[in-house]
């Protein structure tokens, strides 16, 4: 019997393909986002796309912002102007 995820659960899938230091990552879901990853020439890349470190730092920063927004909303705190 298949189970259905709760409405509050967001399924996450991704797939990555590449050779060397470059990859194309596809994130599943309705939107199906795709993005490329590369690295600096010093590490063997062409610097044609953001590095894994850039994506990791952006993910941490945006995660903090989203979490703060959710907590503020739950506490009834208005953010912004």
Summarize this, please?
This protein is α+β, with helices and mostly antiparallel strands and 81 residues long. The protein has one helix and three strands; from the N terminus they run βββα.
Order of helices and strands: EEEH
Report the portion of residues in β strands. Answer: 15-25%
Number of domains: 1
Give the N-terminus to C-terminus distance in angstroms: 50 Å
Beta strand count:
3
Across the major sheet, the strand order is: 1-2-3
Radius of gyration (CA) equals 17 Å
User: How does the helix and strand content classify structurally?
Assistant: alpha+beta
Return the average pLDDT rounded to an integer: 88
Helix content: 25-40%
Largest sheet, described in full?
Answer: 3 strands, antiparallel
Flag low-confidence runs: none
Outline type: flat
Q: What is the tally of helical segments?
A: 1
InterPro entries: KH_dom-like_a/b (IPR015946), OsmC/Ohrsf (IPR036102)
Keywords, separated by commas or semicolons:
single chain; 81 residues; alpha+beta; three-stranded antiparallel beta sheet; 3 strands; flat
Describe this structure in words.
By secondary structure, this protein is an alpha+beta fold. It has one domain (14-75). It has 1 helix and 3 strands; from the N terminus they run βββα. The protein has one helix spanning 52-75; strands at 14-19, 22-27, 34-37. A 3-stranded antiparallel sheet has the order 1-2-3, with no helix packed on it. The longest helix has 24 residues, at 52-75. The radius of gyration is 17 Å and the shape is flat. The N and C termini lie far apart (50 Å). The relative contact order is 0.11. InterPro entries: KH_dom-like_a/b (IPR015946), OsmC/Ohrsf (IPR036102).
């Amino acid at each position: 019997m298949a189970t259905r995820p709760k409405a509050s659960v967001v399924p996450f899938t991704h797939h990555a393909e590449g050779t060397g230091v470059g990859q194309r990552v596809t994130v599943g879901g309705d939107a199906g986002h795709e993005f490329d990853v590369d690295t600096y020439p010093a590490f063997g890349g062409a610097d044609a796309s953001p590095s894994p470190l850039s994506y990791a730092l952006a993910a941490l920063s945006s995660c903090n912002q989203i979490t703060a927004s959710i907590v503020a909303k739950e506490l009834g705190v208005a953010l912004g102007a």
